[in-house]
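Local shape tokens:
==================
===
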Amino acid sequence: MDTTSIMMNEKDIEFASPLEQKLFQEQLLQKQLVFLQEHSRYYQRMFVENQIDVQSIRTIEDLQKLPFTEKKDLQLYNDDFLCCPEEKLIDYVTTSGTLGEPVVFGCSDHDLDRLAYNEFKSFRCAGVTSNSLVQLMTTLDKRFMAGMAYFNGLRKLGAGVIRVGNGIPELQWDTISRLHPDTIMCVPSFVLRLIDYAKQNGIDYHNSSIKRIIGIGEGLRNQDFTLNLLGARIHEQWPEVQLFATYSSTEMSATFSECEYGCGGHVHPELIIVEIIGEDNKPVQDGEVGEVVITTLGVEAMPLLRFRTGDMAAKISEPCQCGRNSYRLTPLVGRKNNMLKLKGTTIYPPAINDVLANCEYIENFVVVARQSNAGTDDVIVRIGIKAPFSTHNNEQLIKDLKDRFRARLRVAPSVEILPTDVIQKINYPAKSRKPLLFIDER
């Protein structure tokens, strides 16, 4: 990707004024609309059916004239979203299937360069430099877009990369002791497993080479940017490292990464437009939680227009202390479709997960949502107990966990204790790229 085409006067657009950024995005949006008009069968059809003249969409506000793109549209008309010949596709990836059946995305050579540029900026935002050595505890296979993007972004940045893959604490610590990376990138809850392994095996992790942890797939902060229970537990046990949270998805082909001030994930304005939409399908005020709706910029193979991610977050427009003027997204509240109404209280699975991940006697868990006979939500938390606590009274453990839920969420779900190996099989089905922690049977 020619980065000079998306810089202004050799200055990163994120440091330009909000007005400059908006005008810049609107220029890119107009080009993207023309591209979709010429190359996308799906959007050609949508423009005709809704009598839309793409030349009339000139501003970010004009996007409201366009229909949303839904996950079901991608599932039903997957091939119609392709905007280039199949012979131009270099890589094939799929979504994780969190909200339904996975969707196939093809990436052109241009798209892979764009992904590398996206991660180059995201890593740089998190303080990674060309002198850094980053241990990737993520998969590069299983049609996972992010793993390849991380590697290529670090390569573009000039940083060193160690591709270890996910899991296996013993291998991770062996690699750390041999190669001395300063940064690790992984699912945050896995950090607790690394800490437990280090304690059990006499590893002085407080004096290891690790200075930075970049988390993926799980939140580390509350809506006010304070560390959540998981983030606080990691910080308490490993205070020497700095924590960074990220947010991304296959569909958006972009990443929102925290800077050193930890006040939300910065947008890269040259790569994506974000709207936060309320229940009335209209934009909400900045700072108000709504659904994240994205329009990709610069994607060649499968660009998306007003795609509903299903993720709930808020937009923060105030300039950041790091000097960037690009807006930021708050930590995700949860997924819109996964909202639970438990005993009159609205909660999202991440809030339940945060309590469970912070509980010292829980080895693994899965949360199951069902509909009761009365038509309300039932939530069952199934937990596996760590070996040192296996002799404890189960009723006392269940009571303690319910008390923790009530203290944090005001309500407590049902709790069941199962063997850890049973839950392990539920968490990691054969085709899974990441742990399955929530099952919606409603």
